[in-house]
Amino acid sequence: MRYPQFDEDVRASVRTAQDRARVLAHLWIGCEHLLYAIAHSPTPVGEPARAHGVTPDGVAAQTARLSNGPRRVGDGLDAEALAAIGIDPPAVRDAVGAGLGPAPVARPRTWRRRRVRLPGHLPVTCRARSCLDLAGKDAERGGTRVAEYHVGVAVVAADGGLVPPILAALGVSRPQLSTAILARAPMTTRRLLWGMLGVASVLWVGSWRIIYLEVTRWHHMDSRLRFTTPSPGLPVITLRVVAGLAPLAVLAAPVLLVRRSRARRR
């Protein structure tokens, strides 16, 4: 996986997910285990999850319910709805069993069954690995390490698996939960530089617009930008300083962004 290293919060979440998988006697780490870890997390990422109803107990209960799904034909059907149209699921099940006959006797295996060995770390499912890959790409675009909010948003947005039915059973809106998690994300250097570029651009254009009005209408400055009054006042002096510093900030922000981008590629 090509992305920056996990931070300590993500490592703790993966350990929690692994412990939860072991409690359930699962031989893998899936998205449902990562969702439980996010709900169990004491960090700012876990707080909005629990506030939206994604609690550890709720995720555990729904995971157990969905993992122990229908075992026989017709177990997951609505018996009352079928009875309303004249269908009796037990009778259909018995008829199918009578038509197919008795189940064949399983032949004993002649080969030696390989023992299942549990290593120090359980394997990650393909869907969970895809979530981690998506979190890594988001972190790479931001120029940061993979944080817990990256993983949280990726797990909540996962398609397929147990996460969508778990959140649906808990009555949680996936877009709202993702937005709440992202709202707790810290300000990254890249976002800070882009913000500095936007603010500096607005100050640059606005300050020179006001200077134009000072020269042409209000006459606190002349065409050479010299003060026409002995004491121009703090607002006019501040305007003059902002008009001089804003272009420097506008030029410095792209340079810093380019240097940071090149440093990440090395």
SSE topology sketch:
Layout: H1 8-23, H2 31-40, H3 46-51, H4 56-67, H5 79-84, H6 89-100, H7 126-142, H8 148-156, H9 163-169, H10 174-183, H11 189-218, H12 234-265
Helix pairs in contact: 1-2, 2-4, 2-8, 4-9, 7-8, 8-10, 11-12
Keywords:
mainly alpha; single chain; 2 domains; 266 residues; elongated; Double Clp-N motif
What does this structure look like?
This protein is mainly alpha-helical and 266 residues long. It has two domains: 8-67 and 120-183, Double Clp-N motif (Orthogonal Bundle); 189-265. 63% of the residues lie in helices and 0% in strands. The protein contains twelve helices and no strands. It has helices at residues 8-23, 31-40, 46-51, 56-67, 79-84, 89-100, 126-142, 148-156, 163-169, 174-183, 189-218, 234-265. Helix 2 crosses helix 8 (148-156). It is elongated.
Characterize this entry briefly.
Helix content is 63%, strand content 0%. By secondary structure, it is mainly alpha-helical.
DSSP summary: helix tally:
12
What is the CATH level 1 assignment of the largest domain? Mainly Alpha
Return the structural class.
mainly alpha
Mean pLDDT: 82
Poorly predicted tracts of residues? 109-119
Shape: elongated
Largest β sheet strand count, sense and barrel closure: none
Global Rg: 31 Å
Indicate the proportion of strand residues. Answer: under 5%
**CATH structural fold name of the largest domain:** Double Clp-N motif
Report the strand count. Answer: 0
Helicity range:
55-70%
Encode the helix/strand succession as letters.
Answer: HHHHHHHHHHHH
Q: What separation lies between the terminal Cα atoms? A: 17 Å
- By CATH's scheme, which homologous superfamily of the largest domain applies? Clp, N-terminal domain
CATH architecture of the largest domain: Orthogonal Bundle
Number of domains: 2
